[in-house]
Structures are given as C-alpha cells and as structure tokens.
Design a protein that fits this description.
The protein is α+β, with helices and mostly antiparallel strands. It has 3 domains: 100 residues, Rossmann fold, CATH 3.40.50; 70 residues, ATP-grasp fold, A domain (Dna Ligase, domain 1); 243 residues, ATP-grasp fold, B domain (D-amino Acid Aminotransferase, Chain A, domain 1, 2-Layer Sandwich), CATH 3.30.470.20. Helices cover 34% and strands 26% of the residues. It has 15 helices and 22 strands. An 8-stranded antiparallel sheet has the order 13-12-9-10-11-14-21-19, sandwiched between helices. Strands 3-2-1-4-5 form a 5-stranded parallel sheet. Helix 4 runs antiparallel to helix 5 and helix 7 packs across helix 8.
Amino acid sequence: MFKKILVANRGEIALRVIRTCREMGIQSVAVYSTADKDSLHVKFADEAVCIGGPKGSESYLKINNIMAAAEITNADAIHPGYGFLAENASFARICEEANIKFIGPTSEMIQKMGDKITAKETMIAAGVPCIPGSEGLLKNIDGAKKIAEKIGYPVILKATAGGGGKGMRIVHKEEELENAWNSAKQEAGAAFGNDGMYMEKYLVEPRHIEIQVAGDKRGNVCHLSERDCSVQRRHQKLIEECPSPFMDDKLRKKMGEAAIKAAKAIKYEGMGTIEFLVDKYRNFYFMEMNTRIQVEHTVTEEVMQYDLIKEQIKIADGEKIVGNSYLPEGNFAMECRINAENVLKNFAPNPGQITAFHTPKGFGVRVDTHAYAGYKVPPFYDSMIAKVICKGKSREEVIARMERALNEFIVEGIETTIPLHLALLKNEEFKSGSYDTGIMERFDYNTILK
C-alpha cells in the first residue's frame, strides 16, 4: 500500500481524501495556494506545501509545482480529487513517467473519454445507446445546419472539450443557430483553449441519471447503482439523490449493464461515472464519462455503505474490486450543495468572511465542508462551501430530515444557497419526484422569500 499520498486539490474533497488516508494509515500531503493557507485541508494533512498564488492557474493547475511538491515530500501517489487536473491526461502521463501513482485511470483512458467525440465513437462501437447527432466535429455553420435539419430541432451544441455547461447552447429553430454557434465557440475557446463543437438531438423533459462504476486492473467492472442529478441550473447540479424516483428495477438493470459495457470497452481502472440522459419514455442515451470521483459520490456512499475513496485508493494499489450492483432495499440518500452565492441576484458569487458557522447534526445527517467560523471564502474558485447529505428509509423521510438539517445550518457573513434548497424541498414538482432537468426554469424564485 502507498506510504504517502499527495492530494492535488483543495476544499472539502481534499479534506475528504485526507481523512480516508488517516484511517488507512497513509501519510497525506496537502498542497495549497496562498489564498487557501487557512483552509482545513491544510491544517489536517500530515504535511502541507504552498504551490503558488491565489488563482487556480497559479497553483492548482501548475503541474510542475505539484510534481515538485510530490518530489520534496517523497509522495508515492497523487490523488487528484475532482476538477482542476483530475481529468487531465497530460498530468496523469507525467505522474506515470515520474513513477508516482496517479489515483485514477491511465492517461490513455482519460484521453479516450475526455474528448466527447472520441468517447461517443467508443460507446457506439461498444453498443451503448448514444444520442443522435454529428459524427465527429462540426467543420462550419453550414455543416451544423445540415445536421440540425437531419436530426430535427431542438438541438444542442456542445464543446468537445467542455464541462460545467460552458460552450453549450440549446437551439430551438434554424434562425437561432448561427448566433448560438458563434457564442458557443467563443466561450469554449476562452474556457478550454479548444473551440471544437459537435451537435446532438436535444431531448425534451429528460432526466440526468448517472451510474457509478468501478474497475480494477484485472478487468473486473461493477456498478454501484444510480444517482439522479436532474435538479440543475445552467448545467450545474444542485441536488442529487439515490435511488432516482424515476427509475424502476428493469431500467436500473438495463442502464447498469450499459454502464459496465461502457467501462469495459476501455478496460477502465478506478472510480468513474457514466452519465446518461433518459427521456420521459425511459429511453436512455450515453452523454459522457467522468473519469474521476464525483462531487456527489457521497450519496452512493450513504446508500451502499461503501467508502468510494478508500476503494479508489485500493484499486490504484492493484487490489481487486469488492463492489456490487445490489441496491439495498429501503436505503435513500440526498445531497444539497451549499454555495456561497446570492440566489436572488442571479446566483452571484458571494465570497467573504464567515462570521458564524454551525453545521447540522443528528441521526442520518452528514456534512462535508472545509469552512468554519472565521474562514474567509476566497473569490478565486468554485463557490461551493459545503455538502449536506441526509439518508433515511424512504424518500419522504430524507426530504423531512434534509429540511430539518438545513434549518439548523447557520452561516453568517455571506449569502448562501440554503434558502433555495429549503424552497426546493417544498416544491410540489420536486416532492412528487416527477421533475426533469427543466425544473429550475419553471421554479418560482418568489417562494424563497416566503
């Protein structure tokens, strides 16, 4: 087993990995920017190394600085967390060349699934259902118009190197296509340094449902059931739950088998997620694969009683996977992402000093956070400051427990999304479980004020 793991990330995920390392008897190394010197992951790691300035481009995305930190601390493995360099094939390759284990898939696997065009071609070859669309990159606007006419409106333009909703545009009619094309390419080029675009049929009233998979070096692959991530704003997830209120045993079996088929197609190693869009007729289509741990992995952990980070580390060390796809009957879990944002000002980020901070406690409640009273939320990174995860024996019980927990959560000094989550939990569409990815477009924000 590894002796020392460097965690190439920040915030709650860095702290999550450090905790598992401590339980496994593995030394941990935190890296941090100058803006994160007071973050809990720095305080709780066995060692900590400053790797640069406050911006991600000056620190958490600086491969040379991270590798230097690994070298001077004698780390024999690197855990990338999520975001930043977690799905960077070049970073994984440099780790391989330096004989430092990248805790995740190989650089080749990341390369295959990181480019959405290549990923889609791989899935089609493996017999996994894919959304109708362009074959390869679109060369120009004329080509885009021809594909849109062939598959029918509405369509969605996507950046091949995209993520987080950037470089993505929904187009309902031909007159809107050229403006959408120009703005999507510009946004993708600025965000990823790659303005390549492709097109897919836009599904009406879809659910965003993902399957957690794990694979080992022996070619074994299992899945650990689904997570429903359909409550989103601008393609950013707000609430995730397992099991999905939309799923039945038949669909779960079919999607699970498809996810395993997808992972086996690239001989996948480590933890990963196969993301699907499912239409209202229960037809499902491959969307993308995330070759890393997900923000919402906690939901699966609570339902399956399975430490995904621990298993991820053991797989990286060459151990055989022990997961299975059996969904324990009567186990439900839900996660609310708490962001430092002003919901009523178009979700404007609200960094600043937290003057009071009290996390909810009690049976069935878990809070993953790196924040505390006196902590200053920096303006340079994603605005998430905490995740509240509740579990119970029914969806109704989980919703009631989440509402109780969020009412206990005290954060003063900054605005957060807690009022939005409390309003969502009372929303009839959400409570019924009959929501889709358009729920936030229909949501009445005035209910937050009541």
